[in-house]
Amino acid sequence: MAEPVLAVEGLRTHFFTKQGVVKAVDDVSFTVNRGEVLGLVGESGSGKSMTGYSIMGLIDPPGRVVAGSIRLNGTDLRALSPEGLRRIRGNRVAMIFQDPMMTLNPVLRIDAQMIEAILAHERTTEAAARARARDALGRVGIPSPDARLAAYPHQFSGGMRQRVAIAIALLNRPDLVIADEPTTALDVTIQGQILYEMQKLTAETGAALMWITHDLSVIAGLADRVCVMYAGRIVEQGTAEAVLGAPRHPYTRGLLDSVPSNNTRGVRLAQIPGMTPSLLELPPGCPFRERCPRARPDCVITPGITTLDDGRRLRCHYPLATPFPAALTVS
């Protein structure tokens, strides 16, 4: 079997604060293969974005990756020097942020930023770099790309700025693209166009795409595989068809039931009770147990990772479609 583009194993990212240690990412493992789209989903604060930042090497004090390996085409990114990471970032691996102003410099014209992103990693002429930048803007649906290259970020709408940020991420034809909810600010028509372009990129170049979002409808039409995160851990992962079509973890089921389109008209919207626990004060055992309708007394023991017959991986003592032990009652 071919080596995956990205292989993350046992990743732990902690933030050391005066209040205590925040375990933002806690024992996360997954792979992304060439031409594959991996969806990373979960509620806000579940650790999705921090997983992406950890891969990119963008965790600053008081945060630190304390354990695990991150391998890009077999190269351990944690072993690289800051200069080695700089050569890879924006070249072999790129990230699209939710806020485009994290990518764009407000005092530089768009052409200067895009051309610099190419020349920093490749020996080519400025004219060739400009032509590639113009084509990239056209691919993400920006009209009159020649005129737009001469504009400044403040002259674009929020959605247009996000499209420029996406174009910059794709400039150097990276092996891996990490997209952190990049279509949140876009209207439905442009969102569909961007999703189509991202799928086309993975199909044509073999690039791997990691799509971070809370929008399950986007993931259903985009991803090949899905990882569901809760409280810094992946609680269920498998093919999109299996995870979204027949979820086995109660949290995944709760997310799907919370989608308005999955509810009967006129019936009260389903929701997961309670709140996500503080990562400073996680309850013992399964972190979802205080919100879980299937929780039992032995859920105070942290569940290990179980591989099911269909290949999906699960962290749950009592997954769905598994009968409850007769001797136990709801706690």
Main features:
alpha/beta; 331 residues; eight-stranded mixed β-sheet; four-stranded antiparallel β-sheet; Rossmann fold; globular
Cα-atom radius of gyration: 21 Å
CATH homologous superfamily classification of the domain at 1-33 and 46-79 and 219-263 and 270-331? P-loop containing nucleotide triphosphate hydrolases
Give the fraction of residues assigned to helices.
25-40%
CATH topology of the domain at 1-33 and 46-79 and 219-263 and 270-331: Rossmann fold
List how many beta strands DSSP finds: 12
**CATH structural class of the domain at 1-33 and 46-79 and 219-263 and 270-331:** Alpha Beta
Low-confidence stretches: 326-331
Question: How would you characterize the overall build of this protein?
Answer:
The chain has 331 residues and is α/β, with parallel strands linked by helices. It has a domain at 1-33 and 46-79 and 219-263 and 270-331: P-loop containing nucleotide triphosphate hydrolases (Rossmann fold, 3-Layer(aba) Sandwich), CATH 3.40.50.300. The chain is built from ten helices and twelve strands. The strands form two sheets. The chain has an eight-stranded mixed sheet with strand order 6-7-8-3-9-10-12-11, sandwiched between helices. A four-stranded antiparallel sheet has the order 2-1-4-5. Helix 3 packs across helix 4 (126-139) and helix 4 crosses helix 6. It is globular. The termini are far apart.
